[in-house]
Design a protein that fits this description.
353 residues, Rossmann fold, alpha/beta, three-stranded parallel beta sheet
Amino acid sequence: MPQAIARRAVAALGLLTAAVALQLAATAPATAAAKCIKGDRKAPYTVGWANIYSVPTWMKQTSGTIEDVVEQLKAKGLVDSYVVTDAEGNANTQIAQIQSMIDADVDAIVVIAGSSTALNRVIEQACEKGIAVANVDSLVTTDQLTVKINTDSNKWGAQAAEFLIGAMGGKGKIIIMNGPAGISVSEDRRAGATPVLAAHPEIEILTETNTPYNAAPAQEAMTSLLFQYPEIDGILSLGGALTAGAILAMDRQGRPMVPMTGENYRQFLELWKEKGLTAWATMQPNWLGGFGVYAAVQALEGRDIPAFVEVPLPIIDNSNLDEYLARAADFPADGYIYSPYSLEMFDDLLAGK
């Protein structure tokens, strides 16, 4: 008899435990897998795009992909409002605009950082408030956000330097063309090239430039340098529009073309074909911004989002240059011929495929 009573007691205790567990499961809020997500935000969401500047065509195209993805998510009932700011290149203005988004309690913020460090605190504040923050392209140093999405800028610079050194036969005088100083993408590309260049002492760096990613200022900078340096054997350009500016400056002065690197900037690719250049390029896809929107919304929906998503670097050379130029008419004359994208592709990238 005592054993039977004990068995009934254990069974009753098991039922009670199960009942309590079910009740707790029913009343407890959902636990979100991604950082910053608290599980108390419901679709449709308000998405904020904290743009550092909108003047360069690359940024305009990036904004276009963000708007496109927002519209696709609206059609799925996941987004209802879209807020855009423009800091006009000023990191302090960008901080204030992100703070305004936090005060308005948007659900997600996509940001290309105007400073790798200055935005840290305001981004951390957004995370603390349960806002999904996707940082793409130019990254901050804090990890208190939902996801960072980028190509490997160090690898970008290393591969560009390796191509140029090979094309020059391992020796010669070069000019390095960088983007704006202090922008993480520009700094990281240059850092990636540093050890490659250091390993080839017969490569002489004549000088370096820092200009916006636009052809006009790059052309102006290169024009001045051409008068100063009568002998240039290669151009390590770490941005597509920069290379176009260099080509235009050299062509105007009747200087012979030399091996050079760059990006998928349409004018650069067209000049490359026209002049039969020895060249190499890769791509910082404009759809990184749209991918950021998608990743943030997926995090809000409870999906487990990796802290960092590396987007593979595509290589453009003489073997596939014509494939890019075949789609040139679909892009602005001063724009970038970027690769196609889809929500399904974003799913694959989030899954590490």
